[in-house]
Amino acid sequence: MSEHAIEIRDLRVDYGEFVAVKDISLSIPFGQVYGLVGPNGAGKTSTFRVITTLMEPTYGEVKVAGFDISEHAQEAREVIGYMPDLAPVPSDLKLWEFLDFYAQAHRIGGRARRRERVEQCLDAVDLTEKRNDWAKALSRGQTQRLVLAKTLLHDPQVLILDEPASGLDPLSRRDLRLTLQGLANQGRAVFVSSHILTELAEMCSSMCVMNQGKILASGSVGEVRAALGGAERKINVITLGQPQILAQWLEDQPGVREVLAFEDQVSFQFTGSHEDQGVLLQNLVSRGFGIRSFEEGRSSFEDILVEIAGENRRS
Q: For residues 42 and 216, is the Cβ–Cβ distance under 8 A?
């Protein structure tokens, strides 16, 4: 088996004159939960549909576990488990019946072997106690876990999960995160998408951010945050009085923007270097402003996503 679970080179997907995916390249190793994040319309689902052989790209090379999908599509499908966004589940089936149906479709052994595999997959997503419940009685989070169990039936080594945490409550997201990290610890590759950056930051060891068909940044969570957040930092100052006067002074300083004053605090965005920040703090003190604390933080992932989405609307 290849060292990389997924290898993408110069992938492009056109819908008529609209370019959904613009010449992206990406390598995803086994043993990781790898995130693909971006606003709606970024090209995530089109990328997933190509990887899973559900559509042909305009051009580009894609390999899954070493199999070139254009030449060995069937071999690639056998190692892929695909979970689309909002996958339907028949309401008139019990959980074990739903999984048994798909186990038969995958031609998994005889009845005893299918039963064993169904139980293993229910256990993997913590639904064993609900095996005889009707699918229509499941919560949204339980339904997502049932679909993940179905995706695991044929023991795929590469999992492609499109928005699996969509609509889940915090507890269900935590359960999903633990399940996916457990699968990665078994040596599988889990490629998961979301339009919520913080959601993937919690569960992924590496990730990439996609927008308007292009990859903007990739790497570890920290590397992506640094690349997209740039040098800009949000700084919060807690004063010992006169926050409005401090805010007015800050508005005239180089590298300072978006100054807000409230109660005893002043917050602003700062684009200068660390040395410039030190000079700014020295000037604050030397001018007699009473400062109780001066704290900085990089832009949050949600701030980054809002900025990306705003750029889409302006373009």
A: no
Structural domain total, the chain:
2
pTM: 0.76
Same domain, 156 and 262: no
For residues 220 and 237, state if they share a domain.
no
What does the DSSP assignment read for 245-303?
HHHHHHTTSTTEEEEEEETTEEEEEE-S-HHHHHHHHHHHHHTT--EEEEEEEEPPHHH
Domain shared by 239 and 201, yes or no: no
Per-residue tens of pLDDT for the chain, all 315 residues: 567 999 999 999 999 999 999 999 999 999 999 999 888 889 999 999 999 999 999 999 999 999 999 999 999 999 999 999 878 888 899 999 999 999 999 999 899 999 999 999 999 998 999 999 999 999 888 898 999 999 999 999 999 999 888 777 888 888 888 889 999 999 999 999 987 777 777 788 899 999 899 998 898 877 887 677 655 678 899 988 889 999 999 999 988 988 999 888 999 988 777 788 889 998 988 988 988 898 876 555 556 666 665 555 555
Whether 176 and 245 map to the same domain: the answer is no
Query: Of 169, 203, 228, which residue constitutes the final position of a domain?
Result: 228
